[in-house]
# Entry
Amino acid sequence: MDLQALQNECLNCRRCALCDTRTHVVFGQGVPTAEVMFVGEGPGASEDEQGQPFVGRSGQLLDHYLEAVDLSREKNVYIANIIKCRPPQNRDPLPEESAACMPWLRQQFQLIRPKIVVCLGRVAAQQMMDPAFSISRDHGRFYEKQGTLFMATYHPAALLRYPVNKPAVFGDFVSLREKITQVCEHTY
# Structure
């Protein structure tokens, strides 16, 4: 199975109750051979409307950070979320929703085979790295997990609410660029 076939299958998902309230499944976007994968927690209102991840105000901010380190969803990264349907009022995904959706993300991961995964926000970091992960304490640090490097930074939506963290996130992206040059073969 390739990424397009997996996406086609995911578009008809009915594994949890979020399928009843979604407008679109937000599968993911980017380069299928990306060595760097970004993972957020779930789609917001703009993403649900357009069927693409990180397209609202927070997505525009993410794109600025990506551009600052010569990355883009069109050129050399892949962007996905833990859950593929928007939770009502943008609440955190319920454990059963995350559990129902995690197989989709695992299959995306197996097909893309990234060398580096960047978790965007606390929810993604706690789901993918460690339930005790603290963004304020641990952001920007790399952790090796089964041959893949993981790093987390603040979610772009959190930066819109608390812009004081923007310099820290820029530092995380600079560290990411340095790590990419060390471990990735075709990102740059």
